[in-house]
């Protein structure tokens, strides 16, 4: 089944855009994420619900923002890649190097994932890293809670630095 076209018109879709941005908490720093605080699915990515031409749709916020900011139809983008931050809830997109999410290809996304030991590879790598589906979804929900009352850099860092259940922890020993 082909993906439905999604274009975001700043005038015709102004209400939809306002509803979208109301669910985003922007970190104040130049390198901070902009975090989605709306619905989160069990795959640890956000969900944004909209209605177009009488049809309800659910889209990932990181794909919707490509249409909203860059004018790209996400149906024509293979991957909305988190190439800077690897945070599934991040929707910071820009036409320059400040963006965390940008259009990419599946091949480039998989290559970056492998380079960062973020996916694939031998079974022991996954076992060491932990991060089953439920754990990564729980991390996204904890991140959403960390910014529920606005940006809290300490709370965000605590969530991102916490090991996932089953994830190995490096221990240092004194001689």
Short description:
The chain is α+β, with helices and mostly antiparallel strands and 175 residues long. The protein has six helices and seven strands; from the N terminus they run αβββββαββαααα. A hairpin with a 2-residue loop joins β4 (46-52) and β5.
3D architecture notes:
- Helix content is 33%, strand content 16%.
- The strands form 3 sheets. A 3-stranded antiparallel sheet has the order 3-4-5. Strands 1-2 form a two-stranded antiparallel sheet. Strands 6-7 form a two-stranded antiparallel sheet.
- α5 packs antiparallel against α6 (153-161).
- By secondary structure, the protein is of the alpha+beta class.
- The radius of gyration is 17 Å and the shape is globular.
- A hairpin with a 2-residue loop joins β4 and β5 (55-59).
- The chain has 6 helices and 7 strands, in the order αβββββαββαααα.
- It has one domain.
- The chain has helices at 14-21, 61-70, 106-115, 123-129, 133-146, 153-161; strands spanning 24-26, 34-36, 39-40, 46-52, 55-59, 79-82, 101-104.
